[in-house]
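Human
Can I borrow your eye for a moment on a structure tokenisation matter? Give me a protein, with the fold worked out from its sequence. Write it directly below this note and I will take it from there.

Assistant
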Amino acid sequence: MADLTAYLAAGVFLAYAVHRLVVIRRKGADPAQRDVVGFALCMGLAMLFNAPATLSALGRLLPASEAVMLLTHQLKTGAFSFLVLVALALKTPGPARPAVRRQVSLALAVQAVSVTLFLAAGPGILGDSLVVPDGRGPLLAGYNAVFAGYGSWCLCVLGRELARHARGTVPGLLRTGLRLMTLAAVCGVVWTSWALHDITVNLADGRQGLGEDLVSSVLGAITAVLATGGASATLWGGRLSAPGRWLRAHRAYRALEPLWAALYVELPEIALPASAAGRRPGPRRTEFALYRRVIEIRDGHLALRPYLHPYVPGWVAEELRRTDERDHDAVVEAAVIAAALENKRAGQRQDGALPGRPAHTPPPMPGTVEAEAAWLLRVTGAFRHSAAVHAIRGRVRTEASDVRR
């Protein structure tokens, strides 16, 4: 199980590194993107080499297996150093060179101290454990403490910057990605801090298990999935959310049918080319079909302007005082359309009824298809079910009949 989770984490990190390398070569990238690739590459290789099965295979090929353990720890430490550089890039658009140089110098110093402590401990392989001579357990513990302390600090620095950016980002895939990466940083701190378990064993027995244990492998896999998932959220998020968008668009398209059909009967010219033939769009075309339907309804409203009854808004206010309907704006809009359709059907133009009186205009809506569709859904609901709209429709119909007599 430890092998499986370790290889899963390694595979996720390495696959993401390769993907980002391909993107960078095609489009070019800023230093932060290269730092992200460096982190994923170092961490993926470390998880690959540190899997128990890999260590066992390398132990049969190499005379000094402890060197492989040192390499995996140094790769992980290097991965943490790349994270600090990513955090610097997030903090300012163009991180100052002195700050970058300081972090590079610190990273090299940590690497040097780690190697010195490891070699000074004089480790060797005994069975499935790394062991050190008597009295050198504190050196091995210091080696692990440097790794855990530096790694946790790097992850905290990155997590703080990610959280700050997430707070200042509008809701959407980008903020979701930032939050996932922040969660990955938190999980990474827990994963790195698991080395404290090794420290207690170092001090007590002067030994340490080879490879990643099950807990460490699971934490590494979770961190890998969260980190790469967050970093690529803007890529996969749109694909995963597409079925939901299609379903919402299909529901809105069907829900607008009664209002559209009422307009189409009196104003068939509002239908855009092929619209009538494409009444049942496929899943991938529902968003475009909804966009067409919104346009056609709006065109129908404009075509009804000569038939808009000037007194309808006032009549709606009177009717609403007798009912418990609360969506005033939608009821007014629906009543205006219903009255105009009755006038159009009766051939009673209203553009000269009250000269100088401004024609009714709907309340302003945000300029997005989603906002327009949401507004028209409210209007359609009132058009079908509002008692006030029903009363005004009958009133205008009666008035038009009286005029014809």
